[in-house]
Amino acid sequence: MSNSSRIIAIVTVLSAGLIGLTLIPGSTTAEIATADGPALSRLGAPSPVLLRTLDAELAPPKVKPPQPVRVATSAPTRSAPVTPPPPAPVVDSPQLRHGRIGPVAVNLRAGPSSSSAVLSVLSPDEAVQVGDITRGWVQVTRSDGTSGWAYKSYLAGSAPAAPRVASAIRAP
Known about the structure:
4-stranded antiparallel beta sheet; elongated
């Protein structure tokens, strides 16, 4: 027997079997097994219990709206307001001269050196009191009483300062 005749024989036997199965009498209802046992139900009308179960399983999860969070805070402590001390009055002294800062802002430094800490910035044309001179640095005092050092060439007109008498070194 050839391959093609074998295939024809197999197809014929399978077809006859399927036709035979369709001719076997059967019921028009289908049995559906449940956890409680078999239950009869029509194919066109599913069980309400089954529908509720499927709806519950397939429903999106319920999301609760975010709840506001309460943060415990302590009452603010009442303390006396901090007030800065009043500025020291500028005393006109025979050792100090009136002067002005030149046309550019200048750093007011803690000592007579560019490596000294910057205390504040002197504004252009700001009025200052001029004191001692050390290595080109002039001791200046602002109107609010803040005192520090600025380089002499940054003063308007390079205001003359009182000579430093106590530390003046005279060469022989």
